[in-house]
Design brief:
Layout: H1 2-16, H2 20-24, H3 27-35, H4 63-68, E1 73-83, E2 98-110, E3 116-118, E4 121-131, E5 137-139, E6 148-156, E7 159-164, E8 169-176, E9 178-186, H5 193-204, E10 213-221, E11 227-235, H6 240-243, E12 254-264
Antiparallel strand pairs: 1-2, 1-12, 2-3, 2-4, 3-7, 4-5, 4-6, 6-9, 7-8, 8-10, 10-11, 11-12
Length: about 270
Amino acid sequence: MILALGLAASCNFALAQTPGATDSAAQPAAASDSAAPPLSAQAPAAAAPEPPQAAPTPARKPGFLGWLASPDAFRPELSALLILNRDPGAGVESTTFPQRSMGLGLEYSLGPSGLVTFEPGLTIHDAWYRYTAGGRAVTGIDTIFRDAWVMGFLLDFPFLYNLKLGAKSSIALGAGPAFNLRFGIKATTDTPDANVSGINAFLWDQGRFFMPSTHARYEYKVSERYRLGATLSMYWPIFNLWAGEGLGFFDQATFGLAVTLRSPLP
């Protein structure tokens, strides 16, 4: 009995002298915990790459001026103008004949459908004019009767309705106000100044510069970008309604035939 108590006491004494024995078993776990960095210090996961996006379409600037500066297409043209002369006193040297011309038009779609377009344009033309004894300015052919060389700027502001005839063909019909602004200079040094000033005065008197227009156009798609077309135009001499010259409504009526090439703008 006494021997058993002595052995138990010696064992307890030995365990008390080695306190690190119980801690050593926990050290590997502690070491592994200290080796792992905290979650806040770990590198963030790589973000998934964003899918490629198409380049944004440049938006039109707000307001009327921004809209005006952003046409949908432009349309250069080569054309000829025919001015109808019904003045019997002008003589055979001033019969109706074509005038060479060229121009450029812009196209603006009105509404998302694109069926209606606003197409302002400028056509530049020139011709020889003579001043008749009756005080009128008429186009002249014979060099003897050339009093002035007249340069014209035909400003046209039509609205057109567009209709497709198929995958490649289309037609357009429309009308609008137009202004034929003409200025003459001496054809020769022998031309009297009074004749030139009389021609310029006649071309502006009675509102002869205001000639509303009508248009009919056919276009064919020759490529993904270009459309080749032909346009027939008429400029109406409504000033004959009040000018009182007695030459009929169609005197000085102007017909135009143009070959056009439409190209869209980015």
